[in-house]
Every structure is written in structure tokens, then in C-alpha cells.
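ok trying again, last paste got cut off:
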Amino acid sequence: MFKNNIFKYLFCQVGVTLLIFSNSFADTQRPQPEEGFGRQESQLSVGRSIMVATAHPIASKVGFDILKKGGTAADAAIAIQLALNVVEPQSSGIGGGAFALYWNASEKTLKSYDGREIAPESATADLFLDEDGMKRKFWDVVPGGLSVGVPGTLALLEKLHLNFGSIAWKELFNPAIDLAANGFPVSSRLVKSIKRARLKKLKFFDDTQNIFFKKDGSEYSAGEIIRNKELAQTFKIISQQGSKAFYNGVIGDQIVRTVQSSRVNPGLMEESDLERYKVKERTPVCLPYRDYKICGMGPPSSGGLTVGLILGILENSQLKGIGRGVEGMHLFIEASKLAYADRNLYIADSDFVTVPSQGLMDKAYLKERFTKITRTPIEQAEPGTPPGSEELLRQLHRHKESAGTTHFSVVDSYGNSLSLTSTIETGFGSRLIAGGFLLNNEMTDFAFVPKKNDGLIANRVEGGKRPRSSMSPTIVLKNNKPYLILGSPGGSRIISYVAKTIISVLDWGMDAQSAINSGHVVNRNGVTEIEEASDALGFKKGLSQLGHQIKVRNLNSGIQMIQINDDGTLVGAADPRREGLVIGD
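nice, full thing came through this time. structure:
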């Protein structure tokens, strides 16, 4: 029954208040959305009590149905993530890791959960060095078991269910099991992702090709049906036995065998590494910003602190009065440079290295950083010396971070809110399949070299350590209640995408959809990137005249956002750059 309704619900939502509209820019044309699944140029959903915004229409419908049954945001999150594992396998799944923020309405508290992958205990700082002690190339180490960290997404989902779930664990697996067993229509985005991954060494692994290519080796076309019966069976086992089947059972055994026996880059993971895995509840990173509080994930994510740094620096400006023009973008670019400079030096897994989090959020420090911004662009910002960092001996770590990630936002009928970003690192992760799901290549988020100029890099490989991430699930509080729930995929650019969207709403007065649609301007402490075919191209000439080095490129975010108005109405928006959908009621 579920499969028979796949196409129907994409175009007809009975009992759902769903407004989809078109929006064009005055001077430039937005990139055309990819074909398939009823994608629209822009979309907005308005609801009264429940809402989901995910990266795929099928996952949105799955989560919405759970909420309609009286499920909590945690229940919906579990069903959504499992469905995404099936229909958006290149981006996330139980073979990867995740971060989640959860607003508990009954207690009026914000919780944050770290389900990030962990390095095997036997991993050492020279993991990605060759026999001569030289750093190996990124794409040479991505495929295979060496890049696989101990997955945390499933443990995080189980933690959410234990703390906040109301619907039986087994029931939450049923939609994903049906999708995997009976098949789903392939989107054009997945078709393109498969094509790109094949060029990036996907062809090494037969088990992976057996799922994502036809029996004759040809590629699927958009709208054709893909089935993954092995994943359906994996989900059935987990639905009955819980995460112990994954971390201390038959599925875990399969993961370890797959990692260790990889024909390319065999890995180090042991069964004991899976058995030791724990989700960590951490204190959210919250920074006052004007009349709001911006809350995100702390280390090992760099997202919460770096988004906070950008906004904290800019709070010293009159950004609202300046508006979204060349001058406003200049300030955003320069604040981003300063924030990324601090990120690259200080932030890593705080269980292994000291991170001066409080110092980075110190108002006096942020004001001092703001004084570094002048009319002339900084060529490359130097990190500052926040309180608590004076004795830290570090070296900068600028590193490739890929965008195989997804984000979704949920509000339930009880007033609970969830912002969750999950990943398997690059598109298709390590290219290894175990139990029908892709295994991550998250180990490549560590620094490939442990030290530089005789100084240790904070994000160096260490056994049991969690690699630094840029995932930035965010909840903005207004009057100590959730106001914006958002996040995005996009590798290290996630931080810029999220910060820009927040500023667009809070300072520049944009509605949720316009804030997401507006063209990206990104600077990670180097060249300024401007989104091609977007309204941001209008800033190119003025920024160039100020002295900014500009590169126009595709900046493919996937922002999913829900706004909770003072009267309790919900306004959701999905990024038209991908195939997401918002559904509210």
C-alpha cells in the first residue's frame, strides 16, 4: 500500500495545508531544479501544529505520517532517517554519524546529542601517511575500509527514542522496510550522484555496484525502480533486536568483515570498537545575538562555535541598517574569514584536546575580532587569542571536507522541535556496503598529518577520537522558545549557509523561503565564492572593486528550515537546490 501511494502523495496532500509558490529574482535566474518528485522552484508550507522539512519528498511524507499518528519529533526523526537511508543513500544512513538538537517542550530545555563516528582504537596519527611519511591524496584513501569510522547514527536514533519516543520502535521501521523491499523511483539527483561516484572509484566494489547499477552494469534512469532487499532485511533485524544487533551482533560482524577485507585500503575496525560506541549528550553551544539566542552543536562539531563566531563578530555592526548589499556582504565575508581562522586552529574533539569554547564566545573577544574588519579585505585572517587559549600550542588545519550529508527539521504537536544533520562524509562514503547500507569515510575528516612546524594539529587522528565536523544543526531561540529550526548539508560550507540564512531572517527581514533561496556568498578564509546563476552575482562587481578575490561556482546547499511564529503557526521552507519538501498541518 505504501509503495502504491508514492507518486500520489507527491502531488496531492489530503488534509495538509501546503502552499507551493514560484519566486523569481529581479535581476538573475535561479538554477533550474532537478527533475523528478514534483520539485518546485520555491516552496513554502504553512501549518498549525506539526511540520517536517526533509531532503526528500518520500522521507517528508514518512515523517509527516508519524506525526499525524501522534508521534513525537523523535519518532518522526527515526522514521525519516531510515527512509532517507533508502531513497537518499548517497548522503546518510546507519553506516554514518549524526548530530541532533532536541527542544523538550514539557521541560523547556534544549538537549544536544553527539552521534559522530569514532576512530578505531588502533588508529594512529600516521594513518594517512605513506611509507615515506608523506601525506596520501584524499581520493586515494576514501574508498575502502581505512576511511571508515565507527558509525553512530543508529545509536543516536535509539537514544532519541529512549528519551522522547512514544511510538513503538518496530513500527517506525515499517515505511523504510517497505521502501527498501518494494523499491522506490530513482530521482534525477540520485542518478547524477551515482554517475559522479562512478568516476570517483565507486567501480572498485562489486557489492555497491550491485545495488546502484543494473545487472548488466548500466545506469538507472530517473523514475526507474531501485530495490534493496538486503537493507530491508537489516532493518527488520534492527526493528526486532534494537541497536545491539548492529553494535554487538550479526550486523556488526558484517561491518567488521567488510572493513577488514576491503580489496582497497583494508581497515582497522574491530568488533570491540563497535561494542564501545556511545552517544554523548553534550551541552549545546548558545550565543546571545541581538534579541535571540543561537544554539548549535559543540565540539567535535565546529558548526555551533563557528556560526556563533560569525554572528558574534557581526553583532558589533549595524547589519540590519546596512542591509543585504555589497557593504553587508563585505562584513559577512570578513567575519567569516576571522571565524574560520579560529575554527581551523582550535576546534576538534574536546574529549581529546582543550577547546577554548567560552573564550571564543566571549563578548570582548568578539568585539576585538570585529576591529580587524576594515574597508580593505583581509587576504587571509590570522587566528586570534581568545581567553583560555594562551597556553595551547596548535597548528592550523585546513582540510578537504566533502558534502555527502543531509539535514531535516521537525516540529511535533506537543511543541517539541528537532534539528538533525547526518552524514556518511563524501557522496557514497567509503563505497563499501554492509547489510545493504553504505559505510562512511569519516576518518578522512581528520588531519592527514599530525603536526606542522613542530606543532600538533588539534584534529589529528587518535584512537577513539571523533573527527571534527562542520555539521551545524541549529535552533534559534526567541523569548527562550524555538523560533528557527534549521541546518544544511555542504561540507565546510555548511557553516556559511546556516549563518547567512539566520542573518537573512533576523537582520534582513526575509521570509523563510526567500532567505534560503537567496544566493550564497561563502568565504572559508581564502577566495570568496559566489553562487552561480543566483542573485548574489549582483555583488560580484562591487566586491571585486573592494579588492575581494571572487570565484563563481555551484554552491549546492540543502537547507531545511521551520519558523515558529509568536502565534504558534509554523512556516517551513525547503532548499530548491535539492529535492526537499516541507509538509505541515
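cool. Confidence is low (pLDDT under 50) at residues 1-42. Residues 143 and 431 are 6 Å apart (CA to CA).
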